[in-house]
Design goal:
Two copies of one chain form a homodimer. In chain A, the strands form three sheets. In chain A, strands 1-2 form a two-stranded antiparallel sheet. In chain A, a hairpin with a 2-residue loop joins β3 (172-173) and β4. Chain A is 41% helix and 8% strand. The first copy, chain A, has a domain at 37-45 and 125-227. Chain A is globular. In chain A, α2 (46-57) runs antiparallel to α7 (112-126) and α7 (112-126) crosses α8 (137-147). Chain A is mainly alpha-helical. Chain A contains ten helices and six strands; from the N terminus they run ββααααααααββββαα. At the A-B interface, α9 and α10 of A face α9 and α10 of B. The structure holds zinc ion (4 copies). The site of one zinc ion (ZN) has 6 residues of chain A, from loops.
């Protein structure tokens, strides 16, 4: 699908330096939109729609927030910029941050188009959760054009492969959502590599890739059985 | 082994209400000691000895420290006391804390004797790490009396069953030790139930018991292979 890609107005502190692009089909009628595929979901499930935008486009800062200086959250497509541009345009002096903070920011970095594509993929997956609303025909056609036919109730936890229900998205444990956006290979932020997962599965996977994690399980079980 | 159990002087804020007990054999010569089995290790590996005392006797507060009021660390044998005693003797008003904080404190609770026994068990395990010092004969005999013969290099990660080396105890990742004290069944703080584990293994196990965790792995691998 060819997209409009005209610049969309945005009020964020970063938008001056980042043209947000219209993701509607080329030659569309009506006004340009950055997240046309989320318009419908944001009416029925505003928190899930907001989570998709946040997970797709923003770094998470919690891990370094408490102990060391450094920005808490920023767009992933800002986190990808060179040190001198971050200093000049955003007044963020990466050199002054502890190395661990710099690494944490950098490992969340992704380009703008990948972030938008991740948001599209997560929306496609969200509509295939158990209990998800049926998408309207614009949204269905748009998302299927990118990722293929949607099958109701077919979205599993990326890690443990159990079906995920839309209700899980409103469950919290100690302020953490029960479902997180997971990466099959850590730090690779693109549509192919992302999915939803139980928080505890995502925590368990840790820094391993999904393949490494399954291999680790096999090895552990082998050793346990030898005892 | 019958123990002396005379009250040992201690300077902590809690010791007024908690008789710390001498753990030397009954009828011992010399002065009374609460951790006689750690005297030798605290000379060669003071940080490991301190970690054993800390993990065996103290709650960890990190999880609730940042977001919500409540004490950061306290002895596990204080955390086990009734609300009214905590208020009267330690000026800690549990009722005023959020429920999540109260639960976090209570799930670390253990009685004094169990804490001491956990410290003994961890010391016994520490001497069986790859690269551990050979215990002097007092320490060896004392610990083997409780937990049986020690075998050099036989302490494995409680979870993944790989051998642990003493060097791992000085490795850090983002300020967290690479080795943690793990509980086969979460929240059961006694000698039988504790061991050392890689931090990432302990994080992966999460709230599951070790048996539940292995079963979960089996089920996940089965589902992955069916795909
Ligand atoms: Zn447009
Ligand atoms: Zn899962
Ligand atoms: Zn004594
Ligand atoms: Zn391990």
């Amino acid at each position: 699908m060819e997209l409009c890609h005209k610049t969309v107005k945005s009020r964020t502190a970063y938008s001056k330096h980042f043209p947000h692009k219209c993701q509607l089909p080329l030659g569309h009628s009506g006004k340009c939109l950055e997240f046309p595929f989320l318009v419908s979901l944001s009416k029925t499930h505003p928190r899930i729609a907001a989570k998709i935008v946040r997970d797709a486009t923003m770094t998470t800062g919690a891990a370094w927030k408490s102990s060391q200086a450094g920005p808490n959250r920023m767009p992933r497509y800002v986190a990808i910029l060179d040190d001198d541009i971050l200093l000049e345009k955003f007044n963020l002096d990466m050199q002054s941050l502890p190395e661990i903070t710099r690494l944490k920011i950098r490992e969340k970095a992704a380009d703008y188009d990948s972030c938008i594509d991740v948001a599209r993929k997560l929306t496609w997956l969200a509509y295939q959760l158990h209990g998800a609303p049926i998408p309207d025909s614009f949204t269905k056609n748009y998302l299927e054009e990118f990722f293929g036919p949607m099958v109701a109730g077919s979205t599993n936890c990326e890690i443990c492969k159990l079906p995920l229900t839309i209700d899980l998205f409103s469950e919290n444990r100690v302020g953490k959502a029960a479902v997180e956006t997971a990466h099959k290979t850590p730090r690779l932020h693109n549509a192919e590599n992302v999915g939803f997962a139980h928080r505890f599965c995502n925590v368990a996977q840790g820094n391993k890739s999904l393949d490494e994690f399954y291999l680790w399980m096999e090895e552990v079980l082998t050793r346990v059985k030898m005892l």
